[in-house]
Amino acid sequence: MITAIIIDDIQKSRAVLLRLLQQYCPQISVIGMAASADEAQFLILEKRPNLIFLDVEMPNGTGFDLLERFSEPDFEVIFTTAHDRYALQAIKFCALDYLLKPIDIEELVIAVKKMENKIKTKAISTQKNFSYLIENLKNNNHKDHKIGIPTQEGLIFIKVNDIFYCTADRSYTFVHLKNKKRLIATRKIKEFEKLLHTHDFFRVHRSYLINLNYIEKYYKGAGGYVVMSDGASIDVARRKKDDFLDRLSKL
Questions:
Q1: Do strands 97-100 and 28-34 pair parallel, antiparallel, or not at all (unpaired)?
Q2: What's the whole-model pTM score?
Q3: What is the DSSP string of 46-99?
Q4: For the chain, which domains are there?
Q5: Is residue 102 reached through a cis peptide bond, with omega within 30 degrees of 0 on the bond before it?
Q6: Digit-coded pLDDT (tens) for 160-178
């Protein structure tokens, strides 16, 4: 049995999530609920849950503020959020689990099952993920943000601006770095495109996602091609050319 605490400032939201967990996730035992960060901190220290369901948007302190109070958290987290796009981006960057409100039953069951397997197998703690999440939220320079790259060996955190470009290989993505190293990510390139589109990255071709800050030169043509800082030549798809040039003009 996994012990859990629900943290949400809205009573109805707490009640709905409790009901869904009781009905669809019998492996979860809810041992407490809290309506604020202060109340939640006390409850976590007292009850020592395996898992917390943490609302991002709360008055007098966000869910992220609560996490910052624990230097070495010994619990897992599933975030819940309604609309905060910036918060959601930060959560995804650090490969943490989340549920969008209103909570979908199927997504809840999947998230809980994933967490159950993690807790049962005593997988590596997500403490590092939390620390990078807080660090990214505090850092206004998105070039210094760190992103978790899932590999077969585990999650590797690197600075976004250390990525030159990404190349697609079926269900994998090769992430080419500033130090001339290459990571093999167990994530499709379209997922990196979604994560990095606000960080000066552009998908110039179905097989290539590039960091616009590292373009040395663009050569005209039907679509043309770019030469990157490491000397790599990358084709620009004809259908991407106009959007690409427009994006470059706005850098």
A1: unpaired
A2: 0.81
A3: HH--SEEEEES--TTS-HHHHHHT-SS--SEEEEEESS-HHHHHHHHHTT-EEE
A4: 2-136 (3.40.50.2300), 145-249 (2.40.50.1020)
A5: yes
A6: 999 999 999 999 999 999 9
